[in-house]
Structure formats: C-alpha cells, structure tokens
Design goal:
By secondary structure, the protein is an all-beta fold. It has strands at 6-7, 14-18, 29-35, 41-49, 54-58, 68-78, 81-84, 88-93. Strand 3 (29-35) and strand 4 (41-49) form a beta hairpin.
C-alpha cells in the first residue's frame, strides 16, 4: 500500500511550493496550477510569501475529488515577469 499525501475530501491542509531562482518576488501575485489524475487542469489563487520564496494553497471542499497522482506547481507574476515554483506530485488516496 503506498503512503498517501492526502485523501479525497481532505480540506484545510496546506500545499506549500518552493520558488527557485533569484528574482525578487516582492509585490508579486501567485497562483497554483493543479493537474488532476484525469488530466483536468485547475488554476487556484494562492498566497505568496516573498521572503520565504513559497507559494501556498489551502485545499477546500471539492478540490480533492479523485484518487491518484496529482501534479502541482506555482506561478508568481510580477508585472511582465513570471517565476515558477518547483512542481510536486501529490498522491491522493480514495479513503482514509
């Protein structure tokens, strides 16, 4: 049995993504791009901590509706510049 990161229906748990590079993120806006196991791509507003270089998203009801391997990455926009948070895989189990 694999070790799951989350389970379907989980809420109020934070997905934190690290932003690589040296671009000053101050004043940027963040989104998290999430690819579900069925291939559907979601874009969610996220919280940017420029000093810690992280993009965070808190799962809400209805987000984790499928078991399987999810892929998530962050996007920070500062004017015309874009920085990307490192992608992560999230393994979601069907039941807890």
């Amino acid at each position: 049995m694999p070790a799951y990161d989350r389970y379907t229906g989980d809420v109020d748990e934070t997905l934190a993504l690290a932003v690589s590079g040296t671009l000053d993120l101050t004043g940027g806006t963040a989104t998290v791009q999430i690819k579900k196991p069925d291939g559907v791509l979601l874009s969610k507003a996220a919280v940017l901590d420029a000093a810690a270089r992280t993009v965070s998203y808190v799962w809400i009801a209805g987000d984790l509706d499928q078991g399987g391997r999810w892929r998530a990455w962050g996007k920070v926009t500062i004017g015309a510049l874009v920085a990307h948070a490192d992608p992560v895989d999230v393994l979601v189990g069907w039941v807890r």
